[in-house]
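User: Teach me something about this protein's shape.
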Amino acid sequence: MVKEFEGKNYWALILGGSEGLGLASAKKLARHGMNICIVHRDRRDDIPEIQKNFDQIIKERVEFISYNSDAVNPESRSKVISELSKKTGSEGKVRILLHSIARGNLKAMTDDKNEILRNADFKLTIEYMAVSLYDWVQDLFQMRLFAPDARVISFTSEGSSKAWKYYGAVSAAKSALEAITRNIALEFAQFGIRANCIQAGITDTKSFRMIPGNEQLAKYARIRNPFKKLTTPEDIANAVYLLSLDEASWINGAVIPVNGGEHLS
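Assistant: First, the predicted structure itself:
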């Protein structure tokens, strides 16, 4: 295994890295020598299992810190950034900011049996799954914690441009996330910051299984996909790793499908 980041004191700050795409990405980057800081929000009962995954990262002999706190809370964000600044020192910099927050409301707009989607549901979902990216970028930038060639990466989905029942608020958030990413790519480029979205294919994660009707979405994805299978968290982690390399420095402001060609039909 080539550890191209070893000795560079690069850090990956991962928002939502205790499971799924974020965790897989953390493990991948750690294997290549990148230090890892994970901000996650989980129940106390889930921590022992989560810690087992974190221990796998620590075994890669990289520096590792984690915070079980609300990534959208300004005080929590300030605490993490302040402590990360002390941890990295004058030479350590954030090479990767990875946004993998999956907190939103999955409700139908019309439903006789269940609560329908409300204005407040849109606000919460967009705040967590879109606007929070900008807040972290801005605060890291103000604290001068980004590496000279930093990469901002976030996860979107095909639902940003397609209508799925129960997905209205998340769809709006993903559309906003893509728009915010494009403007980050434009306005922060002068400071060496690149920003891109990875449009992940249908991936069997805990977050995906919370979507009503996910079984049908998965079945249809297998039919559409040229390889007749779902995307895995490791597929997405590989793409995150590729975007973190020096050779990816000219990729900026893109929404990149990583789905084996699922979007083709």
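Now, about its shape. The two ends are 36 Å apart (CA to CA). The mean pLDDT is 92. If you'd like, I can walk through any region in more detail.
User: That's plenty for now, thanks!
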